[in-house]
Amino acid sequence: MLEDILDILQKSDRWLIISHEKPDGDTIGCGAALMRLGKRLSKEVVFACADPCPTRYSFLLDDIEFTVLRGMPEDFPGSGGVVVCVDTSNAARSMPGLRERPLSCPIINIDHHIDNERYGDINWVEPTASATGEMVTELLTSSPWGMTEDEAVALYVAMVSDNGSFSFASTTLKSHDYAMKLLEAGVSPNRIAEELESNLTADVLRLWGAAMTRATTFADGNCAIYWLSREDFIDTGTSRQSTENLVNFLLRIKGVRMVALCSELMEPDGSSCAGVRASIRARSPFNAREVASIFGGGGHDLAAGCTIMEPLPEAVSLLRQEMETHVSRPHINR
């Protein structure tokens, strides 16, 4: 598998690297590392996503171009090129039109989601990896090209963003082995921690405060939930990108093992609700992906998401019901 991917990358003159919609640190970090690699190999590279990069990860893009596209390019990468989708479990979460428009080049799908739909021509899927960043690290360290410090920094961000800085249950011995390789390439964990954790604005803090005032526990203290309305985003001058990692704070409540943040989505003109995005987190033995799948979502066992096409109050109520049902199932041993 690795040899096939390396061979295609070597032979392809044009790379289209696609991050998943509503990008997080894992998909941005992997894409940035591959973008830098492609440039280093004198390839023509486009790094694209259907949504903007969250400000939190913008330091990874300081000297490379990140393109927001609402659909597949008409004439790129074309024959002799390759499409690389990173950390993207299905075609619908990649770029609109990816599977609808015939391509004259292969699609390489690199991902660690257990529910990946194997939509590529080459599908490298490793559900045991704590982040797709681990896989791209393996790809680069197995290649004849090696890895620069900037590429290693991007991949370290990818890893710590998805495995909770090595604190989540998905972290393995391999995770630390890959981290060692990245440190050997010049990564400074202290500098990256400062970049990721010391970049909140007062507006974002006000947004988070609005959510925290609504924090509610239920299901005998096993679950917690809070929510944000479109008015909260308008009043604070923020966007849904400003909510990354906010859901994790609820897991700090003693005894809580499944949590959710519901964020009201707006139509582009801000005129009406376009559904509610729910971010769900869990600790074993509970399963966030099982709850998200009820609403057509997916992700990992301990971190998942979905969109509920209901007004905000109804969406919060429906999600609470499903979470309570899930944690009360008699066959779950605590």
Structure, described:
This protein is α/β, with parallel strands linked by helices and 334 residues long. It has two domains: 2-197, inorganic pyrophosphatase (n-terminal core) (Alpha-Beta Complex); 202-327, Diaminopimelate Epimerase, Chain A, domain 1 (Roll). It is built from ten helices and twelve strands. It has a six-stranded parallel beta sheet. Strand 1 (14-19), helix 2 and strand 2 form a beta-alpha-beta unit. Helix 3 runs antiparallel to helix 4 (149-162) and helix 3 crosses helix 5. The longest helix is centred in the first third of the chain and has 16 residues, at 25-40. The chain is globular, with a radius of gyration of 20 Å. The two termini are 39 Å apart.
Features:
334 residues, alpha/beta, inorganic pyrophosphatase (n-terminal core), Diaminopimelate Epimerase, Chain A, domain 1, 2 domains, 6-stranded mixed β-sheet, 10 helices, 12 strands
Brief rundown of the structure:
34% of the residues lie in helices and 19% in strands. The protein has 334 residues and is of the alpha/beta class. The chain has two domains: 196 residues, inorganic pyrophosphatase (n-terminal core) (Alpha-Beta Complex), CATH 3.90.1640.10; 126 residues, Diaminopimelate Epimerase, Chain A, domain 1.
Task: Write the topology of this structure.
Elements: H1 2-11, E1 14-19, H2 25-40, E2 44-49, E3 67-68, E4 81-86, E5 107-111, E6 122-125, H3 132-142, H4 149-162, H5 173-184, H6 189-197, H7 202-212, E7 216-218, E8 223-228, H8 230-236, E9 258-266, E10 273-282, H9 288-294, E11 298-299, E12 303-308, H10 312-327
